[in-house]
Structures are given as structure tokens and as C-alpha cells.
Amino acid sequence: MDSAKDEHHEEHDAFLVASQSGDEDLLPSRESELRKPRQYLRLMLECAMALTILGLLIFPPPFASRIEGRRSPVPRFPRRTYTFVPNNRYLHEDMFENNHTTLSTLHNWIELSAAARGYIQVPDRTSYDLGEPYTVAVTRHEEGPGYMMSVFHQLHCLSYLVEHFQQGYGGLELTKEVAHHAAHCFDYIRQALMCAADTSLEGLTKAGPGWGSEHVCKDYDAVLKWANEHGAMPWRNELLPEDSTL
């Protein structure tokens, strides 16, 4: 009898426990209700962080760039499509008739270079992966560290080669110093061309081989603007003689 009563109580208690447990499951606790907004907030923050990281990878900040893991103060410049066409202001076949005509034409190249001839100041250079700087004129009375932007070095080299090509074309015997400088410039431009590796596909045009084809390049106006904003002491002015070159 007592045994039957005990079994009844155990069975009754078991149902009560099950019933109470079910009620608790059906009624969400205040803690779980408070937890939901926090979960949504965390999810939103994680999504925002992921989008921010993705945006920085696709559109890096304009004030600096990282090339193959190297930090550089030079930004990533916008791209622009240019059509290659001959421009007699900078080169033409008649410019080699005499030295004066050659220098007068090469004088126009000065506007293609930065005001400081391509020398750039980097005040916080230790923040970047840069080698030892040159010592350049920062003002008329002060020198400081500076770097040459490669594109302007390339323009100088090409201008030098054009000038001395005319001298050789005119029968002037070139000196050992000219040969040394010319060899440097030829090899420097060779490596610059291979570095840029313009893979634009050129086809047959009425303008002639290489002309009339489109190339996607750095926006050169943007490059000049940045170089002038960060340049060392400007050296060019409107009073430069007409035979001065890069």
C-alpha cells in the first residue's frame, strides 16, 4: 500500500516537473529577450567592419599606397585613357636639322616635368620603406633630403638622348662622358619600359604604327599635381633661356 502511494507521488512529481519545465521553455526569459538586441548589434558591427576592410582593399586611402608590401608616400593615381598620337610640339623629324632647333623643341618638354625637376620632399621618410635620400635644395638657402620621382628621371634621360642624337647626326664626335651618360639612360629607360609593361593591344590604324591606339595610363595631370605639391625648391620660371632643357 505504502509502496503504491510512493509510486503515485513519484509519478505525480515527475509530471509536475515536466509541466513546470515546459512552462519555462514556452515563456522566454527576460535575459534571452535582452540578449537578442545585443546579438543583432554585434552582427551589424561585424558586417560594417567587413565592409570597411573590403573597401580599404579595393579603394586604398589616397595619401599613401602599399606596393607589394612596401609602404610609399606616393598615392595610387587614378587611371585615364589616352590615345597615342604624334605631337610636333615635343618631337618632329625636322628638329634634327641643327642644334638650335633640337634644343628649342626639347625646351617644350620642361612643361611635362614637375617644377622641382621631379625631386620630392618626404618629411616623415622613416614612416615608409625608402632608401637613403639625395640632398637637394629645399629653398634658396636650405638643403634637405629628397627623392627623384622615376618618371621625371626617365623624361630627363630621353631628352638627353634626343639632344645628343642630334649632335651625332650632325657629325659631332661624342665624348666618353656622353657615351657613359647615354649608356646609363638607354638602360634606365629599357628597365622603366619593362617595369611599366604596357600591355595595350595595338592594331592597324591610318595614323601609322603605334599611333591611334588607346592606352590606359596613370592620369598624368594628377601625377604632376602631386609632384608639384610635394616638390623640393622649384627651379623653372618664365625667364629660362629657350635652349634650356630637362
TrEMBL record:
Instruction: List GO BP terms, alphabetically.
Output: mycotoxin biosynthetic process
Cellular component (GO) terms are: membrane
Q: In which pathway does it act?
A: Mycotoxin biosynthesis
- Superkingdom of this entry's organism? Eukaryota
Instruction: Offer an example of a GO molecular function term for this protein.
Output: oxidoreductase activity
Region annotation Disordered: where it falls in the sequence: 1-31
- Indicate where this protein resides in the cell: Membrane
InterPro entries from the entry? UstYa-like
Membrane topology value: Single-pass membrane protein
Keywords assigned by UniProt, alphabetized: Glycoprotein, Membrane, Oxidoreductase, Transmembrane, Transmembrane helix, Virulence
Q: Which Pfam families match?
A: UstYa
Q: Which residues cross the membrane?
A: 40-59
Keyword Transcription in annotation:
no
Where is there biased composition of kind Basic and acidic residues? 1-14
Q: Which family does the similarity line name?
A: Belongs to the ustYa family.
Q: Which PANTHER family match?
A: TAT PATHWAY SIGNAL SEQUENCE, YALI0B05434P
What is the protein name for this chain? Answer: Oxidase ustYa
Q: What lineage, starting at the top, does this entry show?
A: Eukaryota, Fungi, Dikarya, Ascomycota, Pezizomycotina
